Amino acid sequence: MFNEVGVVHYLMGFALGHLGGSIPSGLWLVQAIHGIDIRDYGSKNIGTTNVFRTVGPQTAVLVLLCDMLKGIAAVALVSYLFHNPVLDVVTALGALLGHNYSVFLGFKGGKGVATGLGLLVFLMPKVAGTVFLIWLALVMATRYVSLGSIVAAVCTPIMAWYFAYPPAYIVLGAIAGFFVVLRHKENIGRLLSGTESKIKPGNANNLKK
Q1: 111-141: pLDDT as tens digits
Q2: Fewest beta carbons within 10 Å, which of 95, 159, 187, 204?
Q3: 157 found inside a domain
Q4: DSSP 8-state assignment for residue 205
């Protein structure tokens, strides 16, 4: 709808993305449904994996969808208004960093996997499908969610290049992949030492009140 894009638009796009990405879906949904603070359990993370391990798959699916949609919403709005790939990328980066460093949580947050996947689904669906299959194959084979997430993150810019997406999107894939790997640095240490936990569903009924 609008052709002119300036510095103010990039700042507004980033801010809008960051605010949307900052919504702590995992924390709020688990509190609303189960009456607990997910940060007191398991890995203390608010993301889908820890929710799955702590209270089970039903709530984890809700968290996954909300974390994906909160990133998509801001980018979809900006994309509809301006049709500018670079502005889309700036807004997407805001959403990803908002999830990782939420303004609602003192600039702490998740690891960016679900929100990053949502952004890929909207901006680069071919890449999203490919890296999801890579993630799924590795998780099914090893039961290490972190390993699947790390490898999928590394593959993201490669797949963006392979499918000939715009250069700005390839850069987004590289930056997003970098942050996902960075947020998994402790998991990498545990994978190398053989102490990383394998995935299995939790049950909210087993939690101590």
Answers
A1: 889 999 999 999 999 999 999 999 999 999 9
A2: 204
A3: yes
A4: G
User: Whole-angstrom Cα distance, residue 151 to residue 165?
Assistant: 20
Which of 25, 105, 112 lies closest to 61, judged by CA? 25
At residue 102, the 3 state secondary structure works out as strand
> Is residue 110 within 8 Å of residue 67, measured between CB atoms?
yes
Structural domain contains residue 209: no
pTM: 0.88
CA dist 7 to 4, 20, 72, Å?
Answer: 10, 20, 22
Domain interval for residue 76: 7-203
Report yes or no: 45 and 52 within 8 Å, Cβ to Cβ. no
Query: Which distant-in-sequence residues (6+ apart) come within 8 Å of 168 by Cβ?
Result: 85, 86, 88, 89
| Whole-number Å distance between alpha carbons of 32 and 24 | 12
- Which is it for the CA torsion 10, 11, 14, 16, positive or negative? negative
